[in-house]
Amino acid sequence: MPLFVCDINIVPYTYWSLNGLSLTSKELARNSEGGSVYTRIKKIMDKPWTPARLRKIYDGLVGSEGVVNPAFVTSMDSINIEGNTWSDTSSDNVKDPLSSRASTLTREVQEIQDGANSSTQEMDKKFTGVKPWDVFRITPRDRYKAASGSYVNLLTKIVKVVTSIFLTLFILTTTILSKSALLLITSNMYTNVTLDCKKADVLGHVQSCRRVPPDEPLKPTFIPSQNVEVRWVWAALIVVCMPYLFTMFKCVLVVESLHTIGLCIFVFYVLPNMDPLRGLLLTFGAAFVPSILKMFDNQRESGRKLYILLADVTAMLFQLTVLLLWPIRNILKGENYEEAWGIFVSFLLISIGWWENYINRFTNLGRIGVTLKDLKRNIRRMRTKIYAVVGVWKIILSFSLMTAMMSNFQLSCVKVLYFLGDNTASECPHFSSIQGDTRAVEGGSMWYDPFWIVLIQVFSCLLCYTFSKTACKIMLQVVSFALPLMMAVPVLVGLTIGECETWKQNNGTSPLLMPDYLYWTCDVHGISHNFLETLVSEYYLPLTIGWWLSFMWVTFHIWMPRVERLVQTERLFVQPLYCGVMLEQSLMLNRRHRAKFNAYANAGGQNGIIMPGRSSLKTDTTPMIYVCATMWHEVEKEMVQFLTSLFRLDTDQCARKNAQKFFDVVDPDYYEFEAHIFFDNAFEKHEDDQYEYHVNSFVKQLIRVMDKAASKVHRITMKIPPPTKYPTPYGGRLEWTLPGNNKLNVHLKDNMKIRHKKRWSQVMYMYYLLGYKLVAQPLDARRKQTMADNTYILTLDGDVDFKPSAVQLLVDRMRKNEKVGAACGRIHPIGTGPMIWYQKFEYAVSHWLQKATEHMIGCVLCSPGCFSLFRASSLMDDNVMRKYATMSSNARHYVQFDQGEDRWLCTLLLQQGYRVEYSAAADALTYAPEGFDEFYNQRRRWSPSTMANIMDLLGDWKNVIRLNENISFLYIIYQLLLFLSSIITPGTIFLLIVGALNSAFKIDLLTSLFINLVPVLLYLIACFVTTSKWQLRLAGILSLVYAMIMMVVVVGLGLEMKREGTCSPTTIFLIFVIGIFVVAAIFHPREFYCLLHGALYLLSIPSMSMLLMIYSMCNLHVVSWGTRENAVAANPAEKLKPKSTKG
């Protein structure tokens, strides 16, 4: 490799090379025109610090003794001049709720913006005291297997198709079921319900009843009693009010009141007095007001085409006929005036409820449009604050309207309605009265059937709504949302016609699994003869096809979804939940007309539109992913695995970029990335004042396997150009340009100049990428905030294997919710040997159960550093990044800060109010410890740090609950119980073994206690008096002994289960525990094989839950990393030593 050839003016005070050759300080001095190296360095160091100069220093172009950074050796007290000193209490993380999410950006913008256009001399004066990239602070507060085969891809496609079909059929079925239940309820509120009953032997009783057409001659005639009818009325009220109960805790009073009045008129006046077929077709009139607003929607600034305007006008006219056709017909014939005004008024008021979705910035309604836009904006701001009040008000209003409509303001009818009547009220127009030979029937299932039906209706609506959301979120809106909702009414119309004809042919016998007395209304105002012919001739049934088409046109936007994956429900629907009376209509009208789609804006252009031939696709909202990995003593296969993942990411990004630049493809998932590897201890040992030294064998190995990894991805022999080499204050930097034109920087850290270990590497790249490359730039504060929200750091280990799709899933989590500060994926341990088998089951169970539970009921407490995505703006917030750069000053700091740095970073994010999420589909593979000693050392580091961070979080629970909306008091209780259980686990396992010895070998409990106490005390003493090497050897021996004891325990439990039977407590408990694992594995079919390793996990319980805890507690003073410590860089000096000879 070529040597560095640099002018002395830009050469730092030390020098290094890759191939063992270097220029000495004397040679540098001879080539200098300005004197000795010392003189040149002194001149450089005497210059003031400026942003431009800082950039040159980071780029390795200006010599200095090092940039002041928390990762550097200089004192931490001199770094943040304005910040307060770090407090040992977690309550320092509370920030003012009114402050910005990343107050760092706005705090320092005045310092930079005021001097953005000034000269270099002015900026020198301004930034001499305060460095613009070091503005992060701690604020005080009040104490309040990644690579899958083709068969997996095929299986994924099959699952997606099956899921799509299932969602389509399920939504269609639940929609039909809910609407059928509603129509069944209103059909039994009908005053012409007529029953044919068989009398029983007991006087005054009947054996059975069946519903018959009201025009069928019967003597005597039976009707449901008023006590039965009123139950159907209450069932209808439950249908109306149930969505209000669901949204109560999540709307403007007048609009919502009008909507509620319209629903009550429709349910209590219109539907009970007409057949289900007409009631079903009338629901297409719910889009009347939206159709009017749609006519004034220009859709874009340039207006819209004439044929679209004509279609809008036509749709509005058809919607108007829904409100006027049948009322005018009734008025002209002089019949059913109540039905006439009820149809018009109810649907006019109902359609008002969905006006908000059809008002946007392109609406051209003059002053009215401006007023509606302002009202919409105010509603959006106040919606979550007044739902409780509006929900209660709508329930009270519905109760009042039901009472007034059904009682006709008659006291006797009110008594009947509230179960105080005696079936004799005759002045109630909406209840049947006994006349002539008519008999009232009640009792049996008639008392409870209304509420069973309403229960079916409510749950059908809930399930339909839930699965509709799911279909939209997983990008199946067209097939599994729009299609079934569009087809629901036509399918139900066909089913209703067929069922009514079958019912009449069977003489009132229900063909369905329902009581014979219970059925839909299959007559028109008491006349069942020629039911269908009457509807076609007198009610112009074919015209309803135009109603359906007009409704489809008004809701045509549901066929063109424009949202990203896993979007929040608030961005899918304008109003929360649904309308129980008009389920499918509410879902279609409530689906946002123009959802805010950040993903398309990310693609480029000011409005998110890709312009052909653009040279740059990056905008402020384009996701910028900094891939940051840490390396130390990785072996060749680990480096190849990691570099392979990088080259895959490079290929994916390049393909997306070229598709947009050359084929005008709009890619909502487009991103840009830059890779950084921070190499600890990258140089051979040398003295502090030594100017000539070389990189170690691990760095040379990384350079050597670069071509191998590239060839593996591109499947041809690849030759990556050699890197550009830069000397830097912390050591050196190598820069590659990958085949996709993305950058890979390898930062070589010299232990003599900069702090080593993983946390300080993370601090180094956080301050460099976020502080120096983002905050220190002279940009507008709003633009910086936008860039910070869309900048992510992907933290990786040097041996991880992942696919670009896994990274995209993590980015989707970030896009879904701006309060998500970190997201982690599913980690799969790889390697060989029994310890890997154990970890496969352990990792699987912890992800299946613990991480998934934390994600659903609160927040994930630890986002592992081997594969996690962090949002830049959350890291840059107060009390996060600056506090993460704190020096360890006492014993607890070494345990919490340095032994589990990823968990501590997540704790800081949670305490600052950010959410940490888990994506089970984002798979990543990493090499796990294969030896017993290495595994124990790793867990010796993990266990105490986990407990320390949980203690920190629990100790600050009041502030955490106050700041973090995703963490509740119940979640804190849940974590407290887990924490207490982990403390008592060693004692529990100890007593379990005592009981096992007692039951297996028939030894009394006291003797069993002493037998088990001996090895535990022996190991405890050994941990205090022997070295770690002997402690691990003894732990291995005891683990084998305890594994054999566990085998005896398992056999003993099997015999006990056989002896006591399946109903014994032992059997039930074991079946329950095993069943949890089996069910979890069924939901993760690709990882089902992990259950096979459960046997080894069971045998290892005493070792991992008891001996490991003792080892961890007795070695708290050991702060070494625990893994990869046996690997040592080759020492060239030793190779040159002459071999000794004998004799």
Automatic annotation (TrEMBL):
Q: What is this protein called?
A: chitin synthase
Q: Which residues cross the membrane?
A: 161-185, 230-246, 253-271, 277-296, 308-328, 340-359, 386-406, 450-467, 474-497, 539-560, 969-997, 1009-1028, 1034-1055, 1067-1083, 1095-1114
Q: Where is the Chitin synthase chs-1/2 N-terminal putative transporter domain?
A: 247-532
Q: Which UniProt keywords apply?
A: Glycosyltransferase, Membrane, Transferase, Transmembrane, Transmembrane helix
Under Enzyme Commission nomenclature, its number is: 2.4.1.16
Native species of this protein?
A: Tegillarca granosa (Malaysian cockle)
Q: Which range is the signal sequence, renumbered to this chain?
A: none
Q: Which SUPFAM superfamilies match?
A: Nucleotide-diphospho-sugar transferases (SSF53448)
Q: What is its main location?
A: membrane
Q: What class of enzyme is it?
A: transferase
Matching entries from Pfam families are given as: Chitin_synth_2, ChitinSynthase_IV_N
* Entry membrane topology: Multi-pass membrane protein
Cellular localization per UniProt: Membrane
Looking up CDD domains in the UniProt record yields: Chitin_synth_C
